[in-house]
Amino acid sequence: MKYAFNTWAYSDFPCWVPSYSFEETVKRLSNIGYDGIELGCAQPQAWPYFIDKERRNEMKRCLGENNIRISSILPAPGGGPGGNIASACKAERNWTVQYWKDCIDLGLEIDNCKTLVCVCGWYIFGTRKRDAWKWSVEGISTVAEYAKQNGVTLVLEPTATDSNLVESCDDALDIMNDTKMDNVRLMFDTTHVLYRNEVPVDYIYTMGKDLKHIHIADYDRKSPGTNGCDFQGIMQALKDIHYDGYITMENGFTSRSMHPDVIARTSLENLKSIEKNLN
């Protein structure tokens, strides 16, 4: 299995500190033993509008020197511009579509990354859910058309803890099918499944061949195997469906009291230990 670590824990999104440069983050995660990093497109590492061609070449060299890949690209939801693909504000929707395209370009230029993680949006008071759903499908489809030119796949994430549009496994399946695009597939984050008091293993078997990416964290975004979730079952289910994507940790970023190196190291050690004992 291949393991990656999301850079939120090393950036100032959503917590401001501790934060590290792209080079420092890559070096640390490579030394810990990760195969890849999931690059969050926010500062201080990867806000695409602050990164010119020369800087992108430097980032590419850094990855090669540390023998680590970009597993996936993750646009940052929220913040000043919004980043809401389902927004009632047309200007925000249009900005988000362009931002996602620019994130795709960044991933391709620094490491030919073929996976874009997509939060499907949220709706505010006074907006009808069916309208937000329509806008989300339209925006995702537009980006998917652009992504398809370079073989990039969009993976849709149900995000129950912090959004209200695509919250469940069924929601994700429905919006994927509504796009009618063959390069739009699925992912999920154990944190959001646990928030709904559902079983992560069920998501794996239900998504099946459409599951192309996954975010792993224990309760409260702690290292897997340290706070009560059944990762033995999750890892076995991934093996059962012949999952061949990255197992990506998205944890350790909810408080400045979390030390990212410790979270990253413990997460990797615990899952590799479980992997050795799978059937």
Automatic annotation (TrEMBL):
GO molecular function: isomerase activity
Gene3D superfamilies named in the record: Divalent-metal-dependent TIM barrel enzymes
Isomerase recorded as keyword: yes
Signal peptide: none
Annotated ranges, domain Xylose isomerase-like TIM barrel: 27-273
UniProt keywords, alphabetically: Isomerase
Domain of life: Bacteria
Database matches in SUPFAM superfamilies: Xylose isomerase-like
Membrane-crossing residue ranges in chain numbering: none
UniProt cross-references to PANTHER family, sorted A to Z: HYDROXYPYRUVATE ISOMERASE (PTHR12110)
Protein name: Sugar phosphate isomerase/epimerase
Organism expressing this protein natively: Sphaerochaeta halotolerans
Lineage: Bacteria, Pseudomonadati, Spirochaetota, Spirochaetia, Spirochaetales
